[in-house]
Amino acid sequence: MDALRTGDQGLFGPSSVTWQMHGDPMMWVAGIRALYLQALHPRAVRGVLQNSDFRRDAWGRLMRTANFVGTATYGTTEAAEQAGARVRKIHTLLKATDPDTGERYRIDEPELLLWVHCAEIDSYLHVLRRSGFPLTDAHADRYIDEHRVSARLVGLDPTDVPASRAELAAYFEKVLPELAAGPEARDVDDFLSRPPTHPLLVPARALVWRRVARLAYAALPPYAHELYGRPAPAPSTVTRRLRVTGTLLRCVPARLRWQLPPKHILRAMARLGPGSRPAPYKVGR
């Protein structure tokens, strides 16, 4: 790429599909879809709710997740590895309890980490593609394969992580019998539908947030709608809404969007030069 300085490109680098995708504003909608999906694994969602003040600090948790994804994508190799080490250390200290059996289990069990990882990657890929981000099937496979690196950061063996669309689909087919919309999933659903906010911001919550949350929910796979027990619009309607939303958000100048904290992309561009700027047209170069 022209105007690309020599420097630490991090774990992915400007030539990766990940670098281009993660600069897209629809990642926020995808992140909410991931939360809905992750909450359907009873053991995984218990690990979150029993070890964090999710109900009162959900925004903080969302921002910490966004910061981790941004650091892993656009940070230096050292910064990404340090972020992964922090996550792994925290996870080793935490356990959850099954309320039905009394079983105590670690939240860094590989099967739980793998569910969280796959739900995120599937959501990022699904929402961006469906909203109009230009990705071929080959690009999608490459994206999934790239994220065996991020799986390693949280403590997974990359060889145990899906590396293609076919492998990811097979994984979801295998884990489907374990999914359920239990009490913890209902808590997450309730929060995402009506997050606590200052009284003066309630109108904005109704106008903006609920529409985004409904769109993220609608973009879930059919089995998730069945488990939650709430229907979604027809797939063609959901696709149209995702495309309209993506078009509108992408009209906001990228430089303006990237000014929001924590500014990972701007720091990466300062480190690597203007040629490192993420853009959809650079996918596959």
Q: Give me the side-by-side strand order of the main sheet.
A: 1-2
Q: Give the C-alpha Rg.
A: 19 Å
Instruction: Note the total helix count.
Output: 15
Backbone shape: globular
| Multimeric status of the protein | single chain
How many runs of DSSP E, i.e. beta strands?
2
Structural class assignment? mainly alpha
Largest sheet: 2 strands, antiparallel
Helix and strand string, N-terminal first?
HHHHHEEHHHHHHHHHH
Classify the helix fraction into a percent range: 55-70%
Alpha-carbon distance between the two ends = 9 Å
**Low-confidence residue ranges:** none
Average of per-residue pLDDT values: 92
Estimate what percentage of residues fall within beta strands: under 5%
Organism: Streptomyces mirabilis
Protein name: Oxygenase MpaB family protein
Domain ER-bound oxygenase mpaB/mpaB'/Rubber oxygenase catalytic: 19-250
Pfam families: MPAB_Lcp_cat
What would you say this structure looks like, in words?
This protein is an all-alpha fold. The chain is built from 15 helices and two strands. It has helices at residues 17-21, 27-38, 42-49, 54-74, 77-92, 110-130, 137-146, 148-153, 165-175, 183-193, 202-218, 222-228, 235-250, 254-257, 264-272; strands spanning 95-97, 104-106. Strands 1-2 form a two-stranded antiparallel sheet. Helix 2 (27-38) runs antiparallel to helix 6 (110-130) and helix 4 (54-74) runs parallel beside helix 15. It is globular, with a radius of gyration of 19 Å. The model has no long low-confidence stretch (mean pLDDT 92).
